[in-house]
Amino acid sequence: MTIAEQSLQSYVDQAFARLERLEPGFERRDGQHAMASLWAETLDRGGILAVEAPTGIGKSLAYLIPALWLRARGSGPIVVSTYTKTLQDQLLARDVPLALRATGLPMRVATLKGRSSYLCRRRAHARLAQRRLFDAAGLDEEAFHRLEDWVERTRNGALEELAALGIHLPPPLLADIASDPFTCAGTACEPATGCFAKTARRDARRSDLVVVNHALLLSDPGLRSTLLAESGALVLDEAHHLERVAREQQGISIGAQDLARLAARTDARSGALRLLARALRRGKSETAAAAVASADRALRPVLAHAAEIAVDLASILPPGVPAALWPRGVDLASVSPHAVDQCLAAIGSLTRSLSDAVGAAEADSGASLRPGAASLDAIDEVRGRLGRWVEVEQALRAVVRIEERGVAFYVDRDERGGPRLNRRPLEVGESLRATLFSLSERTLLTSATLAPGDRLEPIVETLGLPEDEVETLRLPSPFPLERQMTTLALDGPEPNDPSFVETLAALVVAVAGEVRRNTLVLLTSYQMLEDLASRVRAPLAARGVALLAQAPGEAAAPLAREFREGAGSVLLGTASFWEGVDFPGEALEVLVIARLPFAVPTDPVVAARSERIAESGGDPFRDLMLPEAVLRFRQGVGRLIRTVTDRGAVVVADPRLLRAAYGARFAAVLPAPPRVARSTGEVAAAVREWFA
Questions:
Q1: DSSP state of 477
Q2: Minimal CA–CA distance to 56: which of 638, 453, 626?
Q3: What is the tally of helices (H) and strands (E) in the chain?
């Protein structure tokens, strides 16, 4: 029987039967089969399906196997989008190969990254000719030659390969050798000439399964109008992040430091204008040289006025305040009456000067330019910077329209502490429906935690999808969690009590010292994390317990790897450790949740969304703060039990779980009502007893 003749359900059944027969340890799971069957029906008829599939269901195989069947029947390529690189790596290394073995189909798989993740060999050659740039970046002779060799020999041009070679370039220099839409859009940049970004996109369109991430999918209209529009199906895994990613992609952030970075990539000292100046013929390029010098001078007023805007914004963002929503009734003109207009005028003058420099260099059939590819590259680089400055002008005009409704305008700080203007849409459903969901005939939204409660309709509505157009399925956990997990709640001081961190520290030391099992402490701020770390470091060391503490901005993956390899360690983590990290078995046996994960109400986007809800007659706490905190709590608790053989203890140090009226919403996430402990010693004893 051919694939075309085989029924959808028999194909799915046959694929899972093959896995049971060929893969040691593979077991048929009811939830996985239910998800696969419903997704296969959706693929057959078209439409949108939303499935919440808790850890242990095996959702990746549940969506991959039916989708591969659709592709084998002649559909367009299958597109799978994830939020985290961790899941993307898991799909490519484990789940996709397993799905291919299940189907027995020889299919081509591709991973597609953003354009800036790929080498542009042509741009790299131009930069490698300027050895001093790499000297300034700290590359010694050996590393420089390794970089040269990689540029010539790499097969896929992925810039992430450089780290494995021990080559660490600063971000501006990486950007200068990467593919760039403004400088790599011409016919000179083609797959045949070594344009890895175009090669990757060409290969993706020829593949059967393409794995991307949400940020790329939502930021690249060209990708959506080609690959997605031609696809057979779209799978949005980790779909609960989609709204936030869309808000970020549709938002704008711009500050003096952003302009300074672009200026450094433009100027005649180390930027594109320097390349153009070097490409000019001596004695035959006076006009072009003057135009280059004029464009270089035009950068100075832009930076000067940007610095003035930063000073003006200080009234909105006092010292020590990380971010602030733009105050109602305050006009930008009253805060920065001259600098914004002058900065816009200066950027306009700069773009004209850059255009004049290109025009002068190309005049008389390029008589002012030295012959060769380097001159063409220099022209392309200046054009690229010109395109960026036009984008900056448009962004600045957009971000200063503070009277626009449905948008959060706020000021925050860049990496150097300077004020920065920001614009974020409050609702993204309409745009997602128009630019994403309308392009796919078959779409799956899935995650281990899609919603805080029993209904998936809220996320469906948030993403701009009418309830009657989306079929939903919420699967129960396949694990007997009530037998695998014990839960305790400490009836101690509340988080706003000055003694809270001291009590939390005593709890961590008592539990870690008593049970000697890997313990993850989930916190909601780096400030509390650092305070806690300073209190527990010495007592834990005295007991021979290793402490790992996440630093601000530190990625979760390397720290998680070190934690898994340890025994009896304590890991203090925030944001990125609440989800997306996998600690099966003894890698994690005790989970401490320091406080219920409510968003900071003064966060500008949260504050703006709260205002909008209140204006519509809703309750910001009930309709926004509480549901999002419960969802985050579910994600945190989900770190503990990852397999059917895991056992562990969850300890909640926030007594609001017991005392607040809304505490029942959080307690309902737990497999059983938590045991109440009156002291840290009682908690430690209960945890020890659980593992006895």
A1: P
A2: 638
A3: 33, 18
Give residue-wise pLDDT tens across range 180-190: 877 765 555 65
What is the reported pLDDT for 476? 93
Render pLDDT for 649-672 as a digit per residue (tens, 0 to 9). Answer: 999 999 999 999 999 999 999 999
Task: Write the CB contacts of 360 (distance below 8 Å, at least 6 apart in sequence).
Answer: 287, 288, 290, 291, 292, 368
Q: How far apart are CA 268 and CA 277, in angstroms?
A: 7
Exposure pattern of 597-617 as b/e (b: 16+ CB <10 Å)?
A: bbbeeebbbbbbbbebbeeee
Q: Which residue has the tokens 């367009």?
A: 76
Instruction: Name 574's Cβ contacts closer than 8 Å, sequence gap at least 6.
Output: 522, 523, 524, 525, 526, 529, 550
Side by side, the strands of the sheet bearing 109-111 are: 109-111, 209-213, 78-82, 233-236, 442-447, 47-52, 470-474
Alpha-carbon distances, residue 120 vs 151, 181, 192, 382 (angstroms): 9, 11, 13, 16
Torsion of Cα atoms, 52 then 56 then 62 then 63, to 10° = 50
Token pair, residue 184, equals 């790599």
**pLDDT, position 126:** 82
Judge contact between 688 and 501, C-beta under 8 A: no
CB 514 within 8 A of CB 537: no
d(C-alpha 236, C-alpha 247), whole Å: 16
Closest CA to 437 of 456, 463, 413, 408: 463
Helix (H) or strand (E) holding 203, with range, is helix 196-206
CB atoms within 10 A of CB 282: 8
Q: Is 552 helix (H, G, I), strand (E, B) or coil?
A: coil
Instruction: Report pLDDT for 3.
Output: 58
**How many whole angstroms separate alpha carbon 287 and alpha carbon 293?**
10
Cα dihedral 403, 405, 411, 415 sign: negative
Question: If you ran DSSP here, which 8-state letter would residue 679 be given?
Answer: S
User: What residue ranges of the chain have pLDDT lower than 50?
Assistant: none
Q: Beta partners for 522?
A: 573, 593
Q: H or E stretch including 98?
A: helix 96-103
DSSP per position, 319-382: TT--EEEPPTT--HHHHSTTHHHHHHHHHHHHHHHHHHHHHHHHHHHHTTBPSSHHHHHHHHHH
Structure tokens at 177: 């050798």
594/651 Cα distance (integer angstroms): 8
